[in-house]
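sorry for the late reply, my laptop died twice this morning and i had to redo everyting from scratch. anyway the thing you sent over, i finally got around to it. pasting the sequence first so we're on the same page, its 409 residues, then the predicted structure underneath. double check i copied it right bc i was rushing
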Amino acid sequence: MEKKCRFCGTPLKHTFADLGLSPLANCFIREADLNKKEYFYPLHAYVCEQCLLVQLEEIEAPERIFSEYAYFSSYSASWLDHARRYAAAMIRRFPLDKQSLVVEIASNDGYLLQYFQADGVPVLGIEPAANVAEVAAAKGILTLVRFFGTKLAAELAAQGIAADLLIGNNVLAHVPELNDFVAGMKMILKPHGLITMEFPHLLKLMQFNQFDTIYHEHFSYFTLRFVQNLLAAHGLKLFDAEELPTHGGSLRVFACHQEDALRTVSHSVPDLCRQEEEQGLASLETYRNFDEKIKKVKRDLLTFLIQIKEQDKTIAGYGAPAKGNTLLNYCGVRTDLLDYTVDRNPYKQGTYLPGTRIPVFSPERIGATRPDYVFILPWNLKTEIAAQLQEIRSWGGKFIVPIPEVQVF
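ok and here's the structure:
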């Protein structure tokens, strides 16, 4: 069956990154299932020659990936701080009060909406993963356990539910039906309502070799220019954008109805689009050259880890993020090179990483085993994690991060 672009329908012919076969990055293995079959899928990202959207095929349905989810946002202190600061900034910039409604799509465990609610602003979360939504509900955050699109948007609109602020942070990449999703956003936005979305910036992914952020639940990878065109195709105007340090480099965009004359386009939008063009992101060839950079990162990482193990040194991982599972599976790193990993999320503790079958323990394991090196898999949180694990310095331990290149500190 011919592969076609999920935005414009153009046949997909050009490889952006071919990471071979990989399991679903958040399908952790329980002890009782270690001898059962595990499924691997092609992890092959293409770039559309027409609209330059980088994308994976929809190998597995969203219902299979997201209905029960292993990622809980609240386990990162720095991410909670990011959410708190965002809520405060939005309340100030777009005066929100008890008469307003903030709706978040993919609201996870309520990590963000809790800050609006604490300020007296009514909120509604939409979250497809029942196990995660349950945590939000326990915080008193009204949460619909549904996937978002035009069908749900029509139901909400029929009930008179419309958003003053509609949030889609780190969800757009998870959506296989981009056109249906954005059309739904327009349907439940008040006439002068605002949309904010955050997403990892493809420019940073390419500049800093962040290929491990490619995994099956991330269907698409975005430039600002593409998102501007996507929103415009559905009657929405991208009027402001700002760069964020999160996830290795993200964008936050602001949008409104195309006909909303109150909002004029900020200089930041053309400035950032120009920056993308200067880095070659308007040229198909730039995307096609990325695959070779990935191969070098793999070779360098394996060479380094093998050298360390040949010195009889021990290496433990910190974190069990989806990006880590992409990296470990692509590079072929198993317990011969990484003894174990740890994670603060109890949902992951006592499991094994998909594909590599590396065991996951609680963080206390590091103090008990005193490894020579701690391999930080969520490298975007390296500062936070290094501060939490200062104790490893007492026995001469060091940290490793793999992206954009192997670093020891």
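The chain has two domains: 65-287, 307-408.
thats about all i looked at so far, will dig more tmrw
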